[in-house]
Amino acid sequence: MATVIVGKKGRITIPADLRRRRGIAPGCQLELVHEATTIRVFVNRTIAPTVHADGYGMLTYSGPARCLAQFDIAAAVPAAARSGVSPPVVVPRRASARRK
Question: What one-character-per-residue DSSP string does 30-93 give?
Fold first, then answer.
């Protein structure tokens, strides 16, 4: 049996060993049932763990082949201006954030 503390916003932290044993991960749905003097917690849905490779191939492109230069932001801004489309927003990095 584990004892947890309720925070200011009513949140609790389920101990890691219990989360592992019950397959509880971020995004899982839990059902809370009030019974007399207790609150029971049921895991409604567990989410299978994923890896980065699971996302490969989700986005496809069926148009003509494009080269990396076509994705250059410096070229995209004038092209967008000529076509009347709003140019992409560019947020410059601060000088202190650049690598030397």
Answer: EEEEEETTEEEEEEEE------GGGGTTSS---SS---GGGG-HHHHHHHHHHHTPPPPP--PP
User: What is the distance between the alpha carbons of residues 57 and 60, in angstroms, rounded to a whole number?
Assistant: 6
> CB–CB of 31/24 below 8 Å?
no
Q: Considering only the C-alpha atoms of the chain, give the largest distance between any 2 of them, rounded to a whole number of Å.
A: 70
- Residue 35 phi, psi dihedral angles, 5° rounding: -130, 105
SS3 29: strand
* pTM for the predicted model, two decimal places: 0.44
Give the residue, 26 or 98, on which the prediction is more confident: 26
The label of the residue with tokens 């009347």 reads 84
